[in-house]
Structure formats: structure tokens, C-alpha cells
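Input.
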Amino acid sequence: MDELPLWPDATVAVLCTAAGAPHAIPISTALRSGPRTIHLALALRRDSLARLRADPRVALTIHATGVTCTAIGRAAVVEEPLAEAPRVAAVRIDVTDIQDHGAARFAIDAGVAWHWTDPEAEATDAQVRAGLRRVARG
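Output.
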């Protein structure tokens, strides 16, 4: 796989940071912003943010309809706080390797099904995505 596949907004992915022992968290803001670039948001209070500052090596595993891959690369904070959502930082992952986990003998029918239960959080999520798209455009 030479380029990142496309996946829908709000796909739950798993971000793993490398500083110290591997540390994995679910995220829902991963945005494919180029063939080998991903932008995502992390809450300023997240340990993962401190961990990627200490060691920028990360892996992001994505499972969505028709997509199953891990993007490996280096992460950097590109805007802190994100103008549209001041409780998060925008992070860019420059992808160096894409592991395609797909095989002809199975298909991923869907990713994790979830939804916001708090209308304010849902509105903030829309602001975060708008901010990430702005940052990704440069």
C-alpha cells in the first residue's frame, strides 16, 4: 500500500505512542489529509500528547468499512491550542510506512459504531474537524 486509504469522518482509530512502554488510546478525529499525511486532535490533558513530544514515533490503526491498516510515522503538534477548539491540539502524522492488514479471505464490514450522547460535545467535535481541515490545508 503506497497511499493511505480513505475512511469516513468519525472513524474510531487507535493511536499508539512509543515513549516508554507502548500506550494506546482510541481516537475519533483522524483525518486523511494527504497520501501519507494524517491530522488528528488530542485533548491538551492527554498523556499521549506529552508522550509524542518525548518520542514522535507513533502508529495509528484504522478499521472502517473496507479499510484495515496501520499508519506508522512521526507525529508533531502543529497548532496548540486549535483555534476552533481551545481544549485540543492539532497533530500531524507524517506517515513513513503503511501496513495493509487486508486479505482476500476476509472483509471489514464496519468499524466501531458510536455516537455522541452530549450535544455540546457533538458540536465541539464538528469544530475540531473544521479546524483540522483548516490546519491540513496549510
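Helices lie at 47-54, 119-137.
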